[in-house]
Specification:
The complex is a heterodimer of chains A (112) and B (863).
Chain A: E1 2-8, H1 13-22, E2 29-35, E3 42-46, E4 49-53, E5 56-65, H2 70-81, E6 89-95
Antiparallel strand pairs in A: 1-5, 1-6, 2-5, 3-4
Chain B: H1 3-16, H2 23-46, E1 52-56, H3 58-62, E2 71-77, H4 87-99, E3 104-110, H5 111-120, H6 122-129, E4 132-136, H7 138-151, H8 155-175, H9 194-208, H10 224-248, H11 257-266, H12 277-307, H13 310-316, E5 320-323, E6 326-329, E7 332-335, H14 338-343, H15 346-358, E8 361-362, H16 364-372, H17 379-383, H18 385-396, H19 407-414, H20 417-421, H21 442-458, H22 464-474, H23 479-488, H24 499-513, H25 518-529, H26 533-540, H27 546-556, H28 559-574, H29 583-602, H30 608-625, H31 631-640, H32 643-648, H33 651-664, E9 669-675, E10 681-688, H34 693-703, E11 708-715, E12 720-727, H35 736-751, H36 757-760, E13 780-784, E14 792-799, H37 804-814, E15 817-827, E16 830-839, H38 848-862
Helix pairs in contact in B: 1-2, 2-4, 5-6, 5-7, 8-9, 8-12, 9-12, 10-11, 10-12, 11-12, 15-18, 18-23, 21-23, 21-28, 23-25, 23-28, 24-25, 26-29, 27-29, 28-29, 30-33, 34-35, 34-37, 37-38
Classes of the chains: A alpha+beta (112), B alpha+beta (863).
Chain lengths: 112, 863
Amino acid sequence: MVKIEAIIKPFKLEEVKDGLNEIGVQGMTITEVKGFGRQKGHKEIYRGAEYVVDFLPKVKMEIVADDKDVDKIVEVILATARSGKIGDGKIFIQTLDECIRIRTGERGKDAL
Amino acid sequence: MDFLSRKEQLFQSCREGLAEFDFSAAYTTLLDEHLRELFGRALKEFGRPDGLALLALGGYGRGEMSPYSDVDILFLHDRGILDEDIQPHLESILYPLWDQKLDLGQSSRTVEECQQLGRTDFVTLVSLLESRLLAGDESLYAALRQWLGYFLSSKPHRRIFLKELKTNIDERHEKHGRSPYLLEPNVKEGQGGLRDIQATFWLGQGLFGFKSLDELVKGDFLPRDSAQGLIKARAFMNRVRACLHILSEGKNDILTFEGQEGVAGMLGYRAQGEISAVERFMQEYYTQVYLITNTLDYCLDRSEEDLRSDFVRRITSRARVVEKGLQVQRGQVEIASSAEVHRRPVLMMRAFDVAMTEGLKLSHRTQDIIRRNLSLVDDDYRRNPEVAEAFFRALTSTPPGKVSTPKNLVAMKDINFLAAYIPELAPVKALVQNDAYHVYTVDVHQVLTVWQLKKIASGHSRSGDDAFDRDVFNQVNDKRVLYLAAFLHDIGKGLGRDHARRGAEMVIPVGARLGLGLEAVNALSFLVEEHVFLIETATRRDLTEEKLIFNCAQKIGQIDLLNMLYLLTVADARATGPQAWNNWRASLLRDLYTKIHHVLARSNLAGKEEADKRDKIKQEVKQRLGGRLEMKEIDRLLEDASAQYYSVMDAGQVARHLLLEADLQNNLMVWDVRAGSEDFYEITILTADRPGLLADLAGVFSLNNINILGAQVFTRSRGIAIDVFHVEPPVDDLMPERIWEKAKTDLHNVLAGELVVSESLPFKKPVFKKAGKSPRRPSRVLVDNDTSDFCSIIEVYTHDRLGLLYDLTRTLFDLGLTIYLAKISTKVDQVVDVFYVRDLDGQKIDNPDRVKFLEETLKAKLR
């Protein structure tokens, strides 16, 4: 079992979600986050005053999946989240020790 | 039938439908009988002592029982609890009750103990006030009641009681959500819930000795219809709570989404038109909630007034006359009488005006007078300019001091004054929005949006974001338009789909009626129609796309509209609920706003004139090419081009370029040469864009001794570069085609990778030319990072020479920069080259060190 974490551009959220739905991914957690990588922030100049934007709004998406599905999921995220411009984001993959459904107590794959 | 069976029967009746069934009364009666029976049996078995009474307390004492309510009882006695006389009685009553699994709360005290606790603990005092004798020693209970009456007869005690009650209410509201209009309200503890009704009753009972809600009308404490409304509200709330308990099979008081569905079903609500059963139920629910909240507020204020000391009363009694029939007294706005309103109906709006402008409360008496005179709000009233003026003053005011609550606005809404004045508001009264975002009903939401604007205007916060918003606010020309838009922006809801469009139409007659000019009315309509546009764009579109920003700028068209739209968006989101707005969204919106603002402020490309010019060109091109290309294809190609492109080309050129681009399909490049005039030739080249392309083009021209006089370089949306060069006639001007052909071939080879300019150029022998005698001015290189949000702009001022453009563009390529747009021009031998560039990551060159390096490297090439 694996947890896939993707940091993507906010406007790509719908597209990625739809793409994942199409390959059968049914659950995900979304958080609004801020951050930067090599896409530095920028300065806004408004009426002579400078506003520095260091941290850029991004969306963090977390998905838990079975090992056999990981490649497909990553492929879809890459295809849908990519705009080709800097700041498209990153995908992180972690192994998961356990997963439990609260309502029923199911564990492991049954809980996915 | 025994107690448990009868209880089950009762519950079953409740499950089957509560529409007319008074569960509360039936259950209370059942419990009374049961407890009296137990008490009677105890007396029979263990003897009949004096000085023992069984009291019902709390909800049970009031006779308001829900299926899983606690049963609170008190054994009142006049001897020690361990006394053998009464111990067996207590046990014989309590054990069966515990066995029957009732949620029992019990205690036993002497009258003195009750007094002691009551003196110091508010909660105990109130529970004693609500007590009811079930069985036993009447004289003992009478003694307790007598003490209660005596204790609360003193004014100081009553004041403390009121103070504690207020604290109690405040704490409860704080804990359970500071608003009566929550999405998933708590029927018992929330604002406008059952506890608030109880609090009203405690007020009446504690301070004035009223024994029931009916009695609140005594001494004019509460108007009759308000008291009746409150009683009906209580019945309604109890029914809702009973259903909720049955559905949850437990003591759940929170009306969750699921609960709402279930309760609506149990109470027999049905869908009607576009509105579902749940929405109709919740509309009723919130209407009751308003009523309860307002009544409690009213009673608290009345009590406060009544308890004021005579001294304080005299001081604050001095009235300030605002105008005839209207005065300010004790910090409240008062209309003198109904007669005055009849004499001058505008007084109603004036009262509202003064209250809002000076940050005062409208006294309940005044609210009553207005409520009773709503019939005076007729069509003439709605068109009256004096009324409109007062209305706008009220709406746009920013009163001194902290903008703490929208009380007056809400009050005016609740007494239906505003809905009478603007009848278009009727459909959204208490209209629920059944989704997770919207916490409030539509009418409340609109009022809160107005209030959020006032908060921005008064600038009562220290965060940087708020200072920014306030700055934008101060630039708004006609604040009436902004506030009115806020007040009416959701007016199209409840009538089906597409509420923004409908609302935009609905507000036009309103604006006209209220005396707004044509431009203002159009702005109003635009704001309502587009009130979700900015936030949707900010969260769903790629803000680094210049074309997107440009289209937004064109759609909005003026900075004033942009400012108002921005503020409306912020206020709307903040007034929707805690989930709808946060710093994350605010930063996206700010980004979009600033970018659009730049386009509108710095260029006229988004203005109407330019837009019209573009449309004309497009029309003409379509006409010319209609037969030769498919219309869909033409449209697509026209859309791809940027506003800058259209601002320098005419229809003829655009049409020609379009045909060339259509030819580009499978070819490496397209090349077109024509004579411009005697002085120059125009060479147009289209090919796939890539870094270093312009350098290669310039290099090829240099290799062929072609001197560039001017150039316009554009990049289309899908990565096609279009370069239009104006070049001097070739050195050998008798056979120009030869030169052009060779240049074309060279370029083709370069693009195919078979010829590398940087390798060939050093071997080029320069053509002999007459040396120029013009005075040399120093060259300049400027990097501008302010004008465009999308590119760094490099301006080069220098002298013309062969190969200059190649040197410059080659340098830019070597520095890792991509050119998106370029304008090359030469006047005599002065050159002005402007390049819009980005680095290979697509970013501007912001870093000051890099900028310096760039400037110096370029300048070195110019010597």
